[in-house]
Specification:
The complex is a heterodimer of chains A (313) and B (226). Chain A is α+β, with helices and mostly antiparallel strands and 313 residues long. Chain A contains eleven helices and four strands. Chain B is globular.
Chain lengths: 313, 226
């Protein structure tokens, strides 16, 4: 067969396959609507869970950022010693940053903080000298890192220069945050797997039922000489259309939800760590593209699997 | 045209639907296959359209040995023979014309040819008025006539009719048999599987009687004798 004739035949066959798919969808509109609705509901449930998981992670990260280790030094502690301590702490593994505030900066900040309190300001003036020591604030990668850092600090000879010790409180907070982080992570993974399995089972059964209702037609098509490929292809085209429509509906719903919900999420995540719009619509849209591809493949594989038994004879 | 040599079909549990059947049907013949329920008539049809394969023996259709036909060749076989059934087997979501057109579309026929062929086939069975009707909008007799038109779409040399009048009233039965006779007059070999005594006796053609999976009688111009 010449390539021109082959191309013409290819176009005729695919034109008919697409026409049959379109006709079948139109004439089985209720079945198509049910299938699309179930796909939409499954995708919404999975996306809702993804949003909850992302929000939990962002919340835990935000809480983690609030935990730090503040070391208040004696006013008499030499500045050179403290800058050496800062350099030492910066080199400790899992320490992400160390902030150093010298006594003069600490006093200025104290005065600014109590600018409206004349009694405190007068008391400072009466003292005549700076009563505040240097402040060193240590930030770690996660709350779970603080106990080790605290132990390290306690073991150092310059530990005696630290005026205020709140190590125990920090350890408790750190361990609680770590527990919360760990449980939130495990819980969201378990729920994500569970919801994904439920969604897969629902899609699998929906496609199977859709094909089951047309099992007699598949048999008739075989009897009049249709090849398996010619019978299968319209189902794949229909599956493609269902998935595209369902994903388009879900994207629309997500966009609308993000528009309504994001203004309320803003104050909760003041550092801008989480928004639905960023989660779902940040280029290159990998989440939505991945979902579409997974659901499409799932629909096609299920279709092929469900049709196999009806195509045997 | 159709040759069965020592054909047996044994289902699991040692149930023999057909046992050592020898049958030769020549081109242009009109043969009625008769017998009581469970004598192997439907099994014979299933073997002829390659819905099942024989356990033993050889089946030739137009010189083509289909006993061990490859799955990929089954559609080609089915495009060379027409088949009609008791339950019509029309596609419920397609109109009369679309049902006929579908049989031609699967073979890759051109659109212009399909349009012309559908029109002629509907005229042949007297169903021009039902071109745009769906099967549920037709009577049983009308559905069977559309099914016959579809079976003739590929201009087959053989038409297999499996109890085509089983669901029809007397008038529709007469109409369907009249059409089958007309098709046979055009040179198509017709194999009519039935247990309708009046139809068989009225035809005055060759009758093959099956009993317990074996050929009991083979009469050139026979009657329904069971």
């Amino acid at each position: 067969m010449s390539s021109k004739k082959y191309r013409a035949n290819f176009l005729i066959v695919w034109g008919r396959i697409i026409a049959h798919a379109g006709q079948n969808m139109w004439r089985n509109a209720s079945l198509a609507l049910v299938t699309i609705t179930i796909l939409v509901l499954s995708l919404i449930s999975v996306n809702a869970l993804l949003a909850v998981r992302a929000a939990t992670t962002a919340a835990v990260t935000a809480v983690n950022k609030q935990v730090d280790l503040s070391l208040f030094f004696e006013p008499a502690a030499p500045e050179k010693t403290i800058t050496d301590i800062v350099a030492y702490l910066q080199a400790v593994p899992n320490v992400t940053s160390v902030e150093y505030t010298n006594p003069d900066q600490a006093l200025a900040a104290f005065r600014a903080r109590h600018a409206n309190n004349d009694e405190i300001l007068k008391s400072l003036d009466v003292l005549g000298e700076n009563p505040l020591g240097a402040l060193v604030v240590v930030h770690a990668g996660s709350a779970g890192d603080y106990p080790a850092i605290i132990s390290l600090v306690q073991a150092q000879p310059w530990n005696t220069l630290i005026q205020q010790r709140s190590f125990e409180d920090k350890t408790q907070i750190a361990s609680r945050v770590e527990l919360l982080t760990s449980r939130a992570r495990t819980g969201s993974i378990v729920l994500a797997i569970l919801f994904s399995l439920i969604a897969i089972m629902i899609i699998f059964n929906t496609v199977r039922v859709a094909i089951y209702t047309q099992r007699d037609e598949i048999a008739i098509k075989k009897l009049v000489g249709a090849t398996n490929g010619f019978i299968r292809a319209p189902f794949f085209v229909e599956g493609f259309v269902y998935v595209v429509i369902a994903c388009a509906v879900v994207i629309g719903l997500l966009a609308a939800t993000a528009r309504v919900v994001d203004p309320f999420l803003g104050p909760l995540f003041s550092d801008g760590g989480f928004s639905l719009h960023t989660l779902f619509f940040a280029a290159p849209y990998e989440l939505l593209v991945a979902e579409t591809i997974i659901v499409l493949l799932l629909t096609w594989i299920t279709s092929a699997f469900a049709m196999r038994r009806y195509l045997r004879t | 045209m159709i040759r069965l040599d020592a054909v047996s079909k044994i289902y699991p549990g040692d149930v023999a639907a057909l046992s050592n059947v020898h049958l030769h049907i020549g081109a242009g013949e009109f043969v009625s296959i008769v017998g009581q329920s469970g004598t192997g008539k439907t099994t014979l049809v299933k073997l002829l359209i390659a819905e099942e394969s024989p356990t033993h023996g050889k089946i030739e259709i137009g010189g083509w040995d289909i006993s061990k036909i490859r799955q990929g060749d089954v559609p080609l076989l089915r495009r060379q023979m027409g088949v009609i059934f008791q339950d019509f087997k029309l596609l419920p979501n397609k109109t009369g014309a679309e049902n006929i057109a579908f049989a031609l579309e699967v073979a890759g026929e051109k659109r212009a040819h399909i349009q012309l062929a559908v029109k002629q086939l509907l005229e042949l069975v007297g169903m021009q008025h039902a071109a745009d009707r769906f099967p549920h909008q037709m009577s049983g007799g009308e559905q069977q006539r559309v099914a016959i038109a579809r079976a003739l779409a590929h201009k087959p040399k053989i038409l297999v009719a499996d109890e085509p009048t089983g669901n029809l009233d007397t008038l529709s039965t007469e109409e369907v048999i009249r059409i089958l006779k007309k098709i046979n007059e055009f040179g198509t070999t017709v194999l009519l599987v039935t247990h309708n005594r009046d139809v068989v006796n009225g035809l005055q053609r060759r009758v093959v009687t099956l009993d317990k999976g074996r050929v009991l009688h083979d009469q050139k111009t026979g009657k329904y004798v069971i």
